Amino acid sequence: MxxxxxxxxxxxxxxxxxxxxxxxxxxxxxxxxxxxxxxLGAQKNFAKYAERIGKEWEKNPSKFGEFYxxxxxxxxxxxxxxxxxxSSQPWYQGGYRANIVAYSLAMLSEYCKTHNKSLDLxxxxxxxxxxxxTINAIRLIGKLVSDDILLKRKYSNFQ
Length: 159
Fold this sequence. Notes:
Blueprint lengths: L6 E2 L13 H10 L3 H4 L3 H18 L6 H23 L8 H18 L3 E2 L1 H7 L4 H25 L3
Antiparallel strand pairs: 1-2
Helix pairs in contact: 1-3, 4-5, 4-6, 4-7, 5-7
């Protein structure tokens, strides 16, 4: 199965503090294709985040400015929209939403990375929404991820 995603040639970093930091950490670790960290729970996810962000801050504290903030908001929009998309799909029967969202966004990131592209975060910031192509990609990937999780659960007690 193939899909299109709205991507640009440049990649961007992000961070956002929201809901006690949990959202921030999820998005930060998803950015780095670390969905397993997201699924470890808030405390372990925070430890991984703190370790990585501390090193980034030491190397270049000036990169944490307005542009960084705007891209953080764009990542929050992507994350929240993905949660809503998953929940509203006819194939979604409840359960595993956090896993489906985490792995779907990691897969989308990997797809863009493999094709030397990334989501256009400044455009998402500007429009405050996702493009139809990105929404379609997330729906397709979400279905694949959900099917995979349910298949693993059925045959190997996925947790």
